[in-house]
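It is worth pausing here to work through a concrete case rather than discussing structure prediction in the abstract. The textbook approach is simple: state the sequence, then state the predicted structure, then interpret. We follow exactly that order.
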Amino acid sequence: MFLKYNLPTFLWATVMLFLTLLPTDKLPTTPEWQLISFYTASHAAVFFLLAILMLRGFTKQKDFAFLNQHSVWLTFVVSVLFGAMIELLQSTMGLGRQGDIMDVISNSLGTIAGISLFFPIRRFRLLGSWL
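Step two, the predicted structure:
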């Protein structure tokens, strides 16, 4: 049961890790946005999805009661630490990437948004019965 419901989280986290550790010469060009930067929005969006997937996995699985009972704060802590780890890896791996505290903040804001919207989305079945 645990792996069944948490596999999407692990897969998404793997994709995130792969893409965020690509050398800079492998990155596509990004559009210039006026209100907020594309990078800020993209960081928040991928962590929003990570939080949704993680909460879904933690609340649907029944193998570990602790994960189910403490799903919100565990999702927050794991997501923020994962984002900080990515920034640390970017700054130390020598791939032309650099860690940025503003990225950690964007990641955290996306996580908070995902946590905040998970239960209303589930309650009103905005994504059907998937959540």
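Step three, interpretation. The chain has five helices and no strands. The helical segments are 2-20, 38-60, 65-69, 71-92, 101-123.
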